[in-house]
Amino acid sequence: MIYVSTFKLSNKTVSNPNIYPYNVFVSKNEKCLVFDKITIFYGNNACGKSSLLNIIANKLKLIGKEEVIIKQGKPYFQEFVDDCTYGLGENEKEQVQQNIPENSRYIKSEDIMYEIKKIQREAILREGYIYEHAKKGYNKEQLEMLKHSPKMEEQIERMKFGQEKYSNGETSLQIFDDWLQTDSLYLLDEPEVSLSPQNQVLLAQKINFGARFLNNQYIIATHSPFMLGTLDTKIYNLNLKDFDICKWNELENVKCFYDFFQNRRDEF
């Protein structure tokens, strides 16, 4: 399933070349992205892949979006987002989608690490659980009821159990299993953080399964060769002048891994 088919960045310019986020994509001639069931933004640090995900998340008003707040001056970030446009995809009946599914969300690597810290520190388990539901739109009365509910106690106990039984990587996989449901759009920013190569491949396989059988769509920022080589995906290389589409084995980061092991081949 494809929920969002295209996304076009703002073409407007500002007088100051250092204004964020205009400065991130000012050198790009091509500003339009076309999405598949799984689409990857690849690139080195500071190439703009996380910024691009957050801009999309803000435009689509997804759970987990990060707003850039300016205390003084013009709200450049929001103006940039407002000027961006997107197109919705089609359902199985070839009818244009009416909206983005409500459960869709933007999941950042720091979100996963925050969840792991919640599990590792019992003192903030309850605070984190309430915070997560506040982000979902629960009002004060609903949050107060949740604090004393059997559902919350059950979830807290499950997270305590996870702390005792699982490593950070295993806990990350469990969090993804909890968060990645069906019939939704997911933006994932470097989901491989804290995962071993084996678990990166396992997560990529889960994503492939979700795209193929669970009606999910994924837009992912990563430079992990294990994710890049496993996912059935379209890859945009943000290191290049435009949003060029590349094969995973053409990417600089992958070639770096290849050369590293080739140069040490006799040691294996």
TrEMBL record:
Domain of life per record: Bacteria
Family matches, as Pfam families: ABC_tran
Domain ABC transporter: 37-191
InterPro entries: ABC_transporter-like_ATP-bd, Bact_Antivir_Def_Nuclease, P-loop_NTPase
The protein, known as: ATPase AAA
Originating species: Clostridium gelidum
Classification lineage: Bacteria, Bacillati, Bacillota, Clostridia, Eubacteriales
